[in-house]
Amino acid sequence: MEHDEKTASKSDVAWIYKLVLGRAHEVEERLIEREGKPIGWLLSDFFQSGEFRSTAIEKLERGIPLEELRDPLPEGLLDWVKATLPLEPSAVPLLDRARGWSALYSVLFDDAAFRASFEASAHVFSDDVRDRLAKMAQDPERFMRVGAVDEITTGGVRGWSVNPKTPDRGSTVELWVDGDFVAAAPVDRFRRDIQDRFGGEGRTGFFIETPHGLPDNRAHRLEIVDGPSGRLLQRLERPARTPSPTQAQVLKQELEAVRAALAKIEARIAAEDRNDPFDPQAYPAYYEAVYRAGGSGHVVAGPDDAPVTVVVDVEGVDQFAIEEALLALAGQVGGVRWTLAVIGAGVESQPFIRDVGQRIEWTTGRALKARGASLFVDDMRGFLNGLSADETVVFAPASGVCAPDALVRLVEAMRPAEVLAAYGDEDSFDDAEGAVGEAAHRDPLFKPGFDPDLLAQTPYVGRLTALTGAVLRKVGLSAAAAGLAPQDALLRAGLSPDQVGHVERVIFSRRVSVAYDDAEQAQVWLSCVKRAYEGVPGVKVEPFDDILGASLPWAVRLRRQASGTAAVIIPTKDSLDLLRPCIESIEKNRDANRTRIEIIIIDHESRDPDTRAYLDELQARGAVKVLPYAGDFNWALMNNLAAGETQAEVLVFLNNDTVVISPDWIDVLCSEAMRPEIGVVGGRLLYRDGAIQHAGFVWREGVSGFLVHEGVGAPGADGGYMGRHALTHASIAVTGACMAMEARKFKELGGFDPASFPVEGNDVDLCLRAWDRNYRVLYTPGATLYHLESVTRGYSRDGEKRKVAARANARLLSRWGQVFARDRWFNGHFSRDSRPFHRLRPPR
Fold it and tell me: What is the pLDDT of residue 276?
């Protein structure tokens, strides 16, 4: 049966997801929709998708190996490929040796039978995608390493290997003889001739010592393979020879073989450690390596003059958990002087708690000093009135245990005078598995820096929270907030991000046995937020909902009333097929918004008669204002000129390749942008297929691709890590494809920078200038749009476009790299060289 005639089962569709997109399918319905379609057609459809463009083709053409971006090849994928796809017989041994995505794609796109399977359905490819796939097949060296053997001696094999796109990227090479692995060596020797050809530092040479020599007594096939990718660099057929090594040479070669094998194993272990994926199964081992084997790290001594009170809430917690919580406090390190106050203790539990303190003192010599005359607090109002303004109050519920350095790290985080509260990262442990020090840890919450907007939707700061006496005396503790009273106090205090410290370490672990009802907690928090915003005009607090169906049962939603005027500014050139749906989607949803809008189109020398007629028709009926622009494409300049032509209170910069999904999108953007403390607001953008294209930017310090869109390729209904995709939150930057800013603030910052960033980087530069002026930048999913990314200008992949992007990145780093050395909303536990929130690394 021909491949394009074979129809796909649900299992085949699931494998196609993994083969093309490197991930599992979203929901069962996706498989059912595609079941029964020809496999060749499905492969064509997936390979021309927006997700494959952004997550594979674009990265390959930038010289970034897919192995750095994806999980390892799924188990069973190669078996399915060999059993299902049409391949030449010569491809099978190459697939058997494929260790990564680059090698797998190289084999497939080099294979004539596989390429032929697309010909019958090639019409589903756009021209540029078909051209790129052809280049991958015809010129795989563009995307991976090349090399050659220069000399074969009795001692080994000498040659060179280089990635033409990234000549300084290190690698290893392997020697195979007749299909069997023989030895490996690093590519680290200087080669002037290769440096002259490809640039870089020139460390592209290798010498592989042959442990047992080569089998010269018979003809053999010698292959040099790139270690990380499995790419075949060169194959040589060698005739038989007669000399044989001496016994001493054999022993030496055997010893070198052992050394080489150990080096290879160590390199692979390091690579696995580096690429360990973030998931609940991986975290227990990560915790063991970082927090137990690695110790607690640097612990500072607590200041002697800093009074600290630890408030332990024991309500609803059994005696065993209470005792372990108090034992954890008794074992605190770092020299912090603290006293204890217990809340929520009934009369029947108080004798037991006193006895725990007594036994701790007997066995450790450490006394749990009670605050005042009694250990137990019955009068919360009197307790708060008795606090000194500079006192630190740490709320540590007995539903979990504090890490040994929890108090000293919270105190250290609150050392700056302006910091009035602090919180830290947390996880959970299964107390059914054994004692606190033995149980496996799981479900980490690696939190962003303090974000008042995120806190207004979910009490993400967690159960272990510290506040100063001054704050608590001012706002009090609400009995109605129950166990969320400290977080409620922090919300009502109205502190700025600079006034709240964040400890990027796991300093509190929740007990699995003390479960919380998400729905009940959401109702409590909904009431807390309503009380906090009671009397604030134009703010409505509601149960959480999301237009794409993201489910966050523990969150709430704030809707802010909008009014006033906004100018939607859209640069365009021809492209009527993009512009018309964009304008129509704005017009369709105009009545769903209270904000009065005007549409300004900056026409960059449109020549298409249909586009000109459409612009004339829009202008004639007063639907838009058209501003002509001539000259080189300069996105920043075009938007600046348009901003000078309107008196609207809010400027909304919009690409012509967008389509509105959220009916009230303008009200959402403008109501946030008009807040005095907010500088820039950006929306959630989707690809045509509904996958996320942009959910804010993440600044990944220390890597070449330091700015990356969050959420790329995730299903639209995916809430993201800690719900970030579906919640309004602070972001280092948002994209200019949909960006709103109050006009007076835009002018205060001087608008976009058309000289330094005419095409690329202008949106990020404006956001960083806003942060620098103490304005916050927000991402909000309340404004959700489709975005056919860069359709008008084309992707910045080749020639001059790549140079423009590289220059913009270099200027951004030069201008802002020292100011924003860390993205405070991207937790330090996450790797900086993979998809955001996807892999773990020990925090610096």
Answer: 47
* Close Cβ partners of 639 (under 8 Å, ≥ 6 residues apart): 569, 571, 602, 653, 736, 751, 752
- Eight-class DSSP state of 681: E
Residues 355 and 736: their CA atoms lie apart, in Å, by 62
What region, left, alpha or beta, does residue 631 occupy, with left being phi > 0 and alpha being psi -120 to 50 degrees?
left
Structural contact between residues 324 and 312, judged by C-beta atoms closer than 8 angstroms: no
> What's the average model confidence in pLDDT over 735-763?
95
At 95-126, the pLDDT tens digits run: 888 777 777 877 887 778 877 776 544 444 44
Helix-helix angle 101-110:77-84, to 10 degrees: 10
| Domains annotated on the chain, with CATH | 3-142 (no CATH), 146-274 (2.60.40), 292-517 (3.90.550.10), 564-816 (3.90.550.10)
- H, E, C per residue of 24-74: CCCCHHHHHHHCCCEHHHHHHHHHCCHHHHHHHHHHHHCCCCHHHCCCCCC
Strand, coil or helix: what is 114? helix
pLDDT in tens, 116-170: 776 544 444 445 444 544 444 444 444 467 788 888 887 889 999 988 878 888 8
Enumerate the β-bridge partners of residue 509: 401, 427
Three-state DSSP at 712 gives coil
Chain Cα centroid distance, residue 590: 34
pLDDT at 810: 82
Lowest mean pLDDT among 61-65, 185-189, 692-696: 61-65
What is the chain's mean pLDDT, rounded?
85
Which of 745, 633, 592, 611 has the alpha carbon at shortest distance from 678?
745
Q: What average pLDDT does this structure show over 499-516?
A: 87
Question: How many CB atoms neighbour CB 190 within 10 A?
Answer: 11
DSSP, collapsed to helix, strand or coil, labels residue 93 as helix
- Report the DSSP beta bridge partners of residue 738: 654
Q: How confident is the model at residue 704 (pLDDT cuts 50, 70, 90)?
A: low
d(CA 470, CA 414): 13
Residue 512's nearest CA partner among 396, 427, 406, 445 is 427
CA neighbours closer than 13 Å in the CB half-sphere of residue 485: 20
